[in-house]
Automatic annotation (TrEMBL):
Stated name of the protein: Nitrogenase iron-molybdenum cofactor biosynthesis protein NifN
Domain (Nitrogenase/oxidoreductase component) ranges: 19-429
SUPFAM superfamilies documented for this protein: Helical backbone' metal receptor
PANTHER family named among the record's database cross-references: LIGHT-INDEPENDENT PROTOCHLOROPHYLLIDE REDUCTASE SUBUNIT B (PTHR33712:SF7)
Originating gene: nifN
Organism: Roseomonas acroporae
Domain of life of the source: Bacteria
Name of a matching Pfam family: Oxidored_nitro
Function text: This protein may play a role in the biosynthesis of the prosthetic group of nitrogenase (FeMo cofactor).
Amino acid sequence: MAEIVHGRKACATNPLKSSAPLGAALAYLGMEGSVPLLHGSQGCTSFALTLAVRHFKEAIPLQTTAMDEVATILGGAGNLEEAILNLHKRMKPRFIGIASTALVETRGEDYVGELGTILRKNASLRGTSIVYASTPDYAGALEDGWSRAVAAIIDALVEPGGAIGPLSRQVNILPGVHQTTADIEEIVAIVEAFGLSPMVLPDISGSLDGTVPSQYQPTTWGGARPEQVARMGQALHTIAIGEHMRHPAGRLRERTGVPVTLFPTLLGLEAGDRLVSLLMELSGRTAPARLRRQRSQLEDAMLDGHFFFGGRRVAIGSDPDLLYGLAAFFHVMGAEVVAAVASTGNSALLERIPTQRVVIGDLQDLEDAAAAAGAELLVTNSHGRQAAERLHLPHLRVGFPIFDRIGSTHRCTAGYRGTRDLIFEVANIAQAGLHAHGPGDFADVLPGEKEASHACAPVAAG
């Protein structure tokens, strides 16, 4: 069991975490025809928007209630109402997801009640799904905001008490914020291989997957439709991925009675086997030949790649669920996690991470721990690139944001195929750092050692 160490620094010198409102906005982007709305100042939204655009390389329809000094003191209900009406008139969204910020949460207004008043007063809004989630910046990080937003969507849109029909083949999928668009596509393909019908919430694989619409779209293009979300209570089962999805999965189970299975991670052979076993049980079918072959390919990749993992010292910094999945992956492959830094301590999985201790801190903590432990690989988001340069370490980019590489949203690490590809990626990083030996390597060898080394060298013919 890992020791959890909470940092006591006065400030984060190189922050690791992204804010909860941004996590909520990313979840809202997984709804079709959506516009996320941050209730706070313009600065809060512009910073979040910059990170999202740089990561996804897409247009992000993130809006703000633009709170100023006067509204902060006298109350922001007017700004909230004006923003909703403007968005409804100009962008015509099907879904508006509202996330609070520290600015309005600190004041302590009843924004849920005020939102209800706004909806009752404006009949024109009745065809638009509007959801509010409390996500102050000072409480939690990216995972927490995503979790609260998904729970708010479930509470607002899912029809309660849906009985499972005898012919129901739907399986609800609640992906975590650490799943990429490629991860979600792979999970959907695995579920469909068993003749089941996946319903993903939120589904960024349909809205942030890099497709280009035929005409300008002011809202998200693709994602989960509100009418689909309403019918999640008719599903056969719910699969949630990541500890931070335990709360929304629990809310869905309480509201509908649909049973839930939570997977801490879908990275690794064992996790893939657990998922396939569950789907076999739900569908009554055996695993298809394609998945059996992918499993065999993963076993071969583990055999081929373990030479480059064995004994390698790894430092990882990320959000808790991603940290747990990556640490378990490296541990199984024979590497040693010598430094682990989490963005927040709001996860029961942190104690199960295979390392001596987990620090709740920032990228400076990761850099210091990696240097002290003699790490050979740094694993974190793009903000860790300067630390990797200073430590002269290879840098495996994971999590959010990744803005100095293209195609990160299409990297798959879920299931057999995703795990296989990650093994290849890490092994190739290790191979790229191996020293190519040549005649010049003997330049600094002592004369006696040089003669001995030549005596052992083969004699060329002729």
